[in-house]
Amino acid sequence: MQTPTLLTQKDKMLANYVPLGVITPNNVFENKEEIEKQLKQLKAADVDGVMLDVWWGIIESNGPKQYDWSAYRSLFQIVQKCGLKLQAIMSFHQCGGNVGDIVNIPIPKWVLDVGETNPDIFYTTLSGERDKEYISVGLDHKPLFGRRTAIEMYSDFMKSFRENMSDFLESGLIMDIEVGLGPAGELRYPSYQENKGWVFPGIGEFQVRLLPLSSF
Q: Signal peptide: which range, if any (predicted)?
Protein backbone atom coordinates (compact mmCIF):
# COMPACT_ATOMS: atom_id res chain seq x y z
CA MET A 1 0.00 0.00 0.00
CA GLN A 2 1.34 3.41 -0.94
CA THR A 3 2.06 5.93 1.78
CA PRO A 4 -0.26 8.98 1.43
CA THR A 5 1.48 12.06 0.09
CA LEU A 6 1.40 14.90 2.57
CA LEU A 7 0.20 18.21 1.20
CA THR A 8 2.67 21.07 1.32
CA GLN A 9 1.58 24.48 2.57
CA LYS A 10 1.57 25.63 -1.05
CA ASP A 11 -0.80 22.81 -2.04
CA LYS A 12 -3.14 23.72 0.79
CA MET A 13 -3.23 27.35 -0.24
CA LEU A 14 -4.19 26.44 -3.79
CA ALA A 15 -7.55 25.21 -2.49
CA ASN A 16 -8.48 28.60 -1.05
CA TYR A 17 -10.93 31.08 -2.56
CA VAL A 18 -12.61 34.37 -1.69
CA PRO A 19 -15.23 33.48 0.99
CA LEU A 20 -18.89 33.70 -0.02
CA GLY A 21 -19.68 36.25 2.66
CA VAL A 22 -16.76 38.61 2.03
CA ILE A 23 -19.34 41.22 0.96
CA THR A 24 -22.24 41.03 3.42
CA PRO A 25 -25.89 40.85 2.31
CA ASN A 26 -26.08 44.52 3.38
CA ASN A 27 -23.35 45.37 0.86
CA VAL A 28 -20.55 45.96 3.37
CA PHE A 29 -16.96 44.82 2.87
CA GLU A 30 -15.98 43.54 6.31
CA ASN A 31 -12.66 42.20 7.63
CA LYS A 32 -10.60 44.05 5.02
CA GLU A 33 -7.31 43.50 6.81
CA GLU A 34 -7.90 39.77 7.21
CA ILE A 35 -8.94 39.37 3.57
CA GLU A 36 -5.85 41.27 2.42
CA LYS A 37 -3.68 39.03 4.60
CA GLN A 38 -5.21 35.91 3.05
CA LEU A 39 -4.81 37.26 -0.48
CA LYS A 40 -1.14 37.99 0.16
CA GLN A 41 -0.70 34.41 1.37
CA LEU A 42 -2.25 33.18 -1.86
CA LYS A 43 0.12 35.35 -3.88
CA ALA A 44 3.08 34.01 -1.89
CA ALA A 45 1.92 30.48 -2.75
CA ASP A 46 2.16 31.33 -6.48
CA VAL A 47 -1.60 31.50 -6.97
CA ASP A 48 -2.44 33.57 -10.05
CA GLY A 49 -5.86 34.82 -9.04
CA VAL A 50 -9.13 34.30 -7.22
CA MET A 51 -12.77 33.72 -8.10
CA LEU A 52 -15.53 35.92 -6.71
CA ASP A 53 -19.32 35.90 -6.90
CA VAL A 54 -20.83 39.28 -7.78
CA TRP A 55 -24.30 38.98 -6.28
CA TRP A 56 -27.29 40.60 -8.00
CA GLY A 57 -29.16 40.40 -4.69
CA ILE A 58 -26.55 42.67 -3.10
CA ILE A 59 -25.77 45.17 -5.85
CA GLU A 60 -29.33 45.97 -6.96
CA SER A 61 -31.06 45.37 -3.64
CA ASN A 62 -32.29 48.94 -3.14
CA GLY A 63 -34.51 49.01 -6.20
CA PRO A 64 -34.59 48.63 -9.99
CA LYS A 65 -31.43 50.04 -11.60
CA GLN A 66 -30.17 51.28 -8.21
CA TYR A 67 -26.71 49.76 -8.34
CA ASP A 68 -24.18 50.14 -5.51
CA TRP A 69 -20.73 48.88 -6.47
CA SER A 70 -18.75 50.62 -3.70
CA ALA A 71 -18.03 47.55 -1.55
CA TYR A 72 -17.01 45.46 -4.54
CA ARG A 73 -14.73 48.23 -5.82
CA SER A 74 -12.94 48.24 -2.46
CA LEU A 75 -12.47 44.48 -2.66
CA PHE A 76 -11.25 44.64 -6.26
CA GLN A 77 -8.71 47.28 -5.27
CA ILE A 78 -7.26 45.00 -2.59
CA VAL A 79 -7.09 42.07 -5.01
CA GLN A 80 -5.22 44.33 -7.44
CA LYS A 81 -2.93 45.61 -4.69
CA CYS A 82 -1.97 42.02 -3.85
CA GLY A 83 -0.95 41.36 -7.44
CA LEU A 84 -3.66 38.79 -8.16
CA LYS A 85 -6.03 38.38 -11.11
CA LEU A 86 -9.79 38.12 -10.73
CA GLN A 87 -12.49 35.89 -12.16
CA ALA A 88 -15.87 37.56 -11.65
CA ILE A 89 -19.06 35.49 -11.55
CA MET A 90 -22.31 37.30 -12.37
CA SER A 91 -24.55 35.56 -9.83
CA PHE A 92 -28.26 36.11 -10.49
CA HIS A 93 -29.39 33.34 -8.15
CA GLN A 94 -30.00 33.09 -4.41
CA CYS A 95 -27.13 32.06 -2.17
CA GLY A 96 -28.48 29.85 0.60
CA GLY A 97 -30.14 26.48 0.72
CA ASN A 98 -27.79 24.68 -1.66
CA VAL A 99 -24.66 22.59 -1.24
CA GLY A 100 -21.78 24.68 0.10
CA ASP A 101 -23.86 27.78 0.88
CA ILE A 102 -22.78 29.27 4.19
CA VAL A 103 -24.55 32.64 3.91
CA ASN A 104 -27.99 33.75 2.79
CA ILE A 105 -28.23 36.24 -0.08
CA PRO A 106 -31.68 36.24 -1.70
CA ILE A 107 -32.44 37.70 -5.10
CA PRO A 108 -33.55 41.38 -4.84
CA LYS A 109 -36.60 41.94 -2.63
CA TRP A 110 -38.37 43.99 -5.28
CA VAL A 111 -38.16 40.93 -7.56
CA LEU A 112 -39.47 38.68 -4.79
CA ASP A 113 -42.32 41.17 -4.33
CA VAL A 114 -43.38 40.55 -7.92
CA GLY A 115 -43.49 36.87 -7.01
CA GLU A 116 -45.92 37.62 -4.19
CA THR A 117 -48.56 38.64 -6.72
CA ASN A 118 -47.35 36.43 -9.58
CA PRO A 119 -45.84 33.35 -7.87
CA ASP A 120 -45.64 31.51 -11.18
CA ILE A 121 -42.46 33.45 -12.01
CA PHE A 122 -40.69 30.75 -9.96
CA TYR A 123 -40.05 27.11 -10.74
CA THR A 124 -42.80 24.99 -9.21
CA THR A 125 -43.14 21.38 -8.07
CA LEU A 126 -46.13 19.20 -8.94
CA SER A 127 -47.39 19.82 -5.40
CA GLY A 128 -47.25 23.59 -5.96
CA GLU A 129 -44.14 24.42 -3.94
CA ARG A 130 -42.21 27.41 -5.31
CA ASP A 131 -38.45 27.67 -5.62
CA LYS A 132 -37.47 31.31 -5.14
CA GLU A 133 -33.76 31.02 -5.81
CA TYR A 134 -34.01 31.98 -9.49
CA ILE A 135 -36.54 33.38 -11.95
CA SER A 136 -37.98 30.70 -14.21
CA VAL A 137 -36.56 30.70 -17.75
CA GLY A 138 -40.18 30.78 -18.90
CA LEU A 139 -40.18 34.45 -17.89
CA ASP A 140 -37.02 35.46 -19.73
CA HIS A 141 -38.92 37.63 -22.19
CA LYS A 142 -41.95 38.71 -20.14
CA PRO A 143 -41.85 42.42 -19.06
CA LEU A 144 -43.09 41.83 -15.52
CA PHE A 145 -40.40 43.70 -13.60
CA GLY A 146 -41.06 47.42 -13.93
CA ARG A 147 -41.59 46.91 -17.68
CA ARG A 148 -38.31 45.02 -17.95
CA THR A 149 -37.88 41.37 -18.80
CA ALA A 150 -35.56 39.10 -16.83
CA ILE A 151 -33.06 39.17 -19.72
CA GLU A 152 -33.15 42.99 -19.71
CA MET A 153 -32.53 43.06 -15.94
CA TYR A 154 -29.50 40.80 -16.30
CA SER A 155 -28.24 42.82 -19.26
CA ASP A 156 -28.62 46.14 -17.42
CA PHE A 157 -26.78 44.71 -14.42
CA MET A 158 -23.83 43.61 -16.54
CA LYS A 159 -23.73 46.92 -18.41
CA SER A 160 -23.52 48.69 -15.06
CA PHE A 161 -20.72 46.32 -14.01
CA ARG A 162 -18.79 47.16 -17.18
CA GLU A 163 -19.25 50.90 -16.68
CA ASN A 164 -18.35 50.92 -12.99
CA MET A 165 -15.46 48.46 -13.25
CA SER A 166 -14.01 49.76 -16.53
CA ASP A 167 -10.68 50.67 -14.91
CA PHE A 168 -10.25 47.11 -13.59
CA LEU A 169 -11.18 45.67 -16.97
CA GLU A 170 -8.74 47.93 -18.80
CA SER A 171 -5.90 47.20 -16.36
CA GLY A 172 -6.28 43.46 -16.88
CA LEU A 173 -7.24 42.72 -13.27
CA ILE A 174 -10.46 41.02 -14.40
CA MET A 175 -9.27 38.20 -16.61
CA ASP A 176 -12.51 36.26 -16.91
CA ILE A 177 -16.25 36.79 -16.45
CA GLU A 178 -18.75 33.97 -16.05
CA VAL A 179 -22.53 34.30 -15.98
CA GLY A 180 -24.81 32.25 -13.75
CA LEU A 181 -27.77 30.82 -15.63
CA GLY A 182 -29.97 29.14 -13.03
CA PRO A 183 -30.22 27.66 -9.52
CA ALA A 184 -26.78 27.65 -7.84
CA GLY A 185 -25.58 29.45 -10.98
CA GLU A 186 -26.12 26.36 -13.13
CA LEU A 187 -28.25 26.02 -16.28
CA ARG A 188 -30.64 23.43 -14.84
CA TYR A 189 -33.94 22.98 -13.09
CA PRO A 190 -33.87 23.12 -9.27
CA SER A 191 -33.95 19.61 -7.88
CA TYR A 192 -31.95 19.06 -4.68
CA GLN A 193 -32.13 21.94 -2.19
CA GLU A 194 -30.68 21.21 1.22
CA ASN A 195 -33.12 23.62 2.84
CA LYS A 196 -35.96 21.42 1.55
CA GLY A 197 -34.58 18.34 3.27
CA TRP A 198 -32.33 16.89 0.56
CA VAL A 199 -29.27 15.01 1.87
CA PHE A 200 -26.39 13.78 -0.30
CA PRO A 201 -26.53 11.39 -2.16
CA GLY A 202 -30.31 11.28 -2.06
CA ILE A 203 -32.53 11.45 -5.13
CA GLY A 204 -33.89 14.90 -5.92
CA GLU A 205 -37.03 16.04 -7.72
CA PHE A 206 -36.95 18.19 -10.85
CA GLN A 207 -39.08 21.30 -10.45
CA VAL A 208 -40.01 21.64 -14.10
CA ARG A 209 -43.66 22.63 -13.89
CA LEU A 210 -44.00 25.86 -15.87
CA LEU A 211 -47.54 27.17 -15.68
CA PRO A 212 -49.17 28.79 -18.74
CA LEU A 213 -47.75 32.28 -19.14
CA SER A 214 -50.53 33.72 -21.26
CA SER A 215 -52.22 35.13 -18.16
CA PHE A 216 -49.23 37.45 -17.63
A: none
